[in-house]
Amino acid sequence: MKKRNTLPASQIGIVGAGVMGAALGRAMLDTGLAKAAGIWATTRTGASASVVEKELGIRCTVHPPTQWLQKTKILFLCVKPGQARGVLKSLLKAGLRADAVVVSIVTGLTLADIQSALGRAQPTIRIITNTPLLVREACTAITSTGNIPAEQGRFVKGLFAHLGLVQEVEESLCDVLTGLSASGPAYMYLIMEAFADGGVRMGLARETALQFTAQMVRGAATMVQRSGRHPASLRDDVTTPSGCTIAGLFVMEDGKLRSTLARAVEEATKTARALGQSTPPK
Ligand SMILES: NC(=O)c1ccc[n+]([C@@H]2O[C@H](COP(=O)([O-])OP(=O)(O)OC[C@H]3O[C@@H](n4cnc5c(N)ncnc54)[C@H](OP(=O)(O)O)[C@@H]3O)[C@@H](O)[C@H]2O)c1
């Protein structure tokens, strides 16, 4: 019989219920992986906490009471990188259980950083995901310490599987995935904007140009995913002799598009690596 990913008796904490944290909370509720009574959250300000309480129907406060932390089996850490270490230390003081699984989506924060901020071998999962999580089209990489209880591990993997593609990776690959897929939506927005500009330049209404660009990008991505074929082979299919596509491709090659995009990933990866090594501002 297939094991369910629910944790019926457990408590789940979301520390930093901002854009990403709140989206995770909503996904847990929408998928039935958790009930509102089983989730608590925190934000930095009371105003944000009220919004989260109203929109998600879960308990949300500025400081988590010890009685919540003492029951918590999974704690999602969703604050900004510069806040993470301080927040972890205050959670420790407030009574975070030694066997609670910390699930961090914080950019650049390593498994070792989390364990060192807590000063103990806390079971920890590091997630690299991206904002298409908001529309359940994320790509998520998971890496973890070796001491994750099976039940919590299944829950986290099940949650992200509901939100798109999920794959377990070695932690050494987290920086390149940050530079490729976590930053990637921003690259694609820029590219899509440029395509739409081309359409507008040649007479399309902005709205039409954007809608056709977005659907074209989605269609091409689906072709790559479903066919399993190399993009170069798919490209050959649509490149007729003396045709318009080869004319457009020549312009892209003149502009060094391929090396420009590949180097963008290289540069973002180096920045992610440096972010992980630097002491973030308080
Ligand atoms: N956005 C992305 O594309 C993306 C993708 C993958 C991963 N990430 C990572 O996800 C994390 C969150 O990003 P986000 O875009 O969701 O940020 P965000 O919307 O700014 O959310 C941050 C949340 O943390 C709360 N917070 C700050 N200090 C706190 C504290 N001391 N205790 C409890 N809560 C605290 C904030 O509360 P207030 O609202 O009261 O200030 C807010 O709810 C970041 O580390 C980011 O690197 C982001």
Descriptive overview:
With 282 residues, the chain is α/β, with parallel strands linked by helices. The chain folds into two domains: 11-169, Rossmann fold (3-Layer(aba) Sandwich); 182-276, Orthogonal Bundle (ProC C-terminal domain-like fold), CATH 1.10.3730.10. Helix content is 53%, strand content 14%. The protein is built from twelve helices and eight strands. It has helices at 19-30, 46-56, 66-69, 81-94, 111-118, 150-162, 174-182, 184-201, 206-227, 231-237, 244-254, 257-277; strands spanning 11-15, 39-42, 59-61, 72-77, 101-104, 124-128, 138-144, 164-168. An eight-stranded mixed β-sheet has the order 3-2-1-4-5-6-7-8, with helices on both faces. Helix 6 links the parallel strand 7 (138-144) and strand 8. Helix 7 (174-182) crosses helix 12 and helix 8 packs across helix 9. It is elongated and about 70 Å long. The chain starts with 10 loop residues before the first strand and ends in a 5-residue tail after the last helix. The structure holds NADP nicotinamide-adenine-dinucleotide phosphate. The site of NADP nicotinamide-adenine-dinucleotide phosphate (NAP) has 25 residues, from helix 1 and helix 4.
Features:
about 280 residues; alpha/beta; Rossmann fold; ProC C-terminal domain-like fold; eight-stranded mixed beta sheet; 12 helices; about 55% helix; binds NADP nicotinamide-adenine-dinucleotide phosphate
